[in-house]
Design a protein that fits this description.
CATH architecture of the largest domain: 3-Layer(aba) Sandwich
Distance between the termini: 45 Å
Helix content: 25-40%
Number of domains: 2
CATH superfamily of the largest domain: Glutaredoxin
Largest sheet: 5 strands, mixed
Shape: elongated
CATH class of the largest domain: Alpha Beta
Radius of gyration: 19 Å
Strand content: 15-25%
Number of helices: 7
Bound molecules: benzoic acid
Strand order of the largest sheet: 5-4-3-6-7
CATH topology of the largest domain: Glutaredoxin
Structural class: alpha+beta
Order of helices and strands: EEHEHHEHEHEEHEEHEE
Number of strands: 11
C-alpha cells in the first residue's frame, strides 16, 4: 500500500555500502532522506548521487541523514561509486541500500509496474525525528530531482516543527513565513515577538523566526 504523509516510515534491515543498516536505529534522533534510483550505472542517477554527496554539509547542518537505494547488488554499487567519484568529483558519502530482493522497494512502493516492473522510480521520503513521513516525491526515471528543492522543503518542515509557521508559495530561506491557523492571535503575541502583518484573519505574515534576533538565531 502507498505510504502517506503522517504514516510511520516502515522499518527494515538492509545491506548497504556502509554495512548493515537497521533503519530506525540508524536514523536515531535525526531527520532522514530515503531516495531510490532506477538502476546502477545510469547517467541521471550518477549526477544525482554526486550532488547528494556534495550537499552533505548542508544535510549535516540540518541534522539530516541521507540514504540511497537501488535494486542492484552491493558489488555493483561499489563499482559504480568509483565512477561517481571520478565523474562527479565527490565520493558517495552516505549509505546505498543494495535491495536486490526488492524488500525495501516493495515496503515503500517504489516499483510502479506501469512505468517499469523491474526498476524503482525516483522516490523521495523525508522522515522526521518522530519517524513519521513528512514528504513523498515521485519522479520518472528520465527526470533528475532538484536537491535544492529537497533542502528547501526540509527547511520549511523544520520551521513548522520548531516555530509553528508555514511557508508560502516559492518561499526561500529568509523570506517571510505564515503563522499556522492553529495559533491564535493571543498565542502569536508570545510566539512571534517581532509581530505579524494580518492581511486577512487567516493570512498572517511574520518574519522568518530563526532569522529574527532573539528568536533562536541572530539576524
Ligand atoms: C538514468 O538514471 O539516467 C536513467 C535510468 C532509467 C531510464 C532513463 C534514465
Amino acid at each position: 500500500m502507498a505510504i502517506r504523509l503522517g504514516d510511520e516510515a516502515p522499518d527494515f534491515t538492509a545491506q548497504t555500502t556502509q554495512g548493515e543498516v537497521k533503519f530506525h536505529d540508524w536514523l536515531g534522533d535525526s531527520w532522514g532522506v530515503l531516495f531510490s534510483h532506477p538502476k546502477d550505472y545510469t547517467p541521471v542517477c550518477t549526477t544525482e548521487l554526486g550532488m547528494a554527496a556534495k550537499l552533505k554539509p548542508e544535510f549535516d547542518k540540518r541534522n539530516v541523514k541521507v540514504i540511497g537505494l537501488s535494486v542492484d547488488p552491493l558489488d555493483s554499487h561499489q563499482g559504480w561509486e568509483k565512477d561517481i567519484e571520478e565523474t562527479q568529483g565527490t565520493a558517495v558519502n552516505f549509505p546505498m541500500i543494495a535491495d536486490s530482493d526488492k524488500k525495501v522497494a516493495d515496503l515503500y512502493d517504489m516499483i510502479h509496474p506501469n512505468a517499469s516492473d523491474t526498476f524503482t522510480v525516483r522516490s523521495v521520503f523525508i522522515i522526521g525525528p518522530d519517524k513519521k513521513v513528512k514528504l513523498t516525491l515521485t519522479y520518472p526515471a528520465s527526470t533528475g530531482r532538484n536537491f535544492d528543492e529537497i533542502l528547501r522543503v526540509i527547511d520549511s518542515l523544520q520551521l513548522t516543527s520548531k516555530y509553528s509557521v508555514a511557508t508560502p508559495v516559492n518561499w526561500k530561506d529568509g523570506d517571510d513565513c505564515i503563522i499556522v491557523p492553529a495559533v491564535t492571535n493571543e498565542q502569536a503575541k508570545e510566539k512571534f515577538p517581532a509581530g505579524w502583518k494580518e492581511i486577512k484573519p487567516y493570512l498572517r505574515v511574520t518574519p522568518q523566526p530563526n532569522k529574527v534576533k532573539g528568536e533562536g538565531q541572530s539576524a
